[in-house]
Design a protein that fits this description.
single chain, 83 residues, mainly alpha, 2 helices, rod-shaped
Length: 83
C-alpha cells in the first residue's frame, strides 16, 4: 500500500481531530444530561447510578481531550514546524 500524500495526510488528521472534537462535545452533553436527571425526583439508587455514569463520561471526555491535544501537537509539528 502506498504512503498517503502530505496533503492527504493533513486532511485525514484534520478530519480525525474534528471527529474527536465532535465526540468530546457529545459525550460531555450526555454527562450533563445524566447529572441533571440524577438531581430530579428519582429513586436514590437510580440517581447514584446516573451520577456514576456521568462521572464515567467525564473521564472519557478527559481521555478524548488528551487524544485531541496529542493529535493537535502532531499536526502542528508535521505541517507547521515554524510555530
Amino acid at each position: 500500500m502506498r504512503e498517503p500524500t502530505s496533503e492527504r495526510m493533513r486532511e485525514m488528521m484534520l478530519a480525525l481531530m474534528s471527529a474527536t472534537l465532535t465526540q468530546i462535545v457529545a459525550t460531555n452533553a450526555r454527562a450533563d444530561e445524566l447529572a441533571r436527571a440524577a438531581h430530579e425526583d428519582v429513586d436514590p439508587s437510580l440517581a447514584a447510578a446516573m451520577q456514576d455514569h456521568a462521572r464515567r463520561y467525564r473521564v472519557e471526555v478527559l481521555e478524548l481531550q488528551g487524544r485531541l491535544a496529542t493529535l493537535s501537537g502532531d499536526y502542528t509539528r508535521r505541517f507547521h514546524p515554524e510555530m
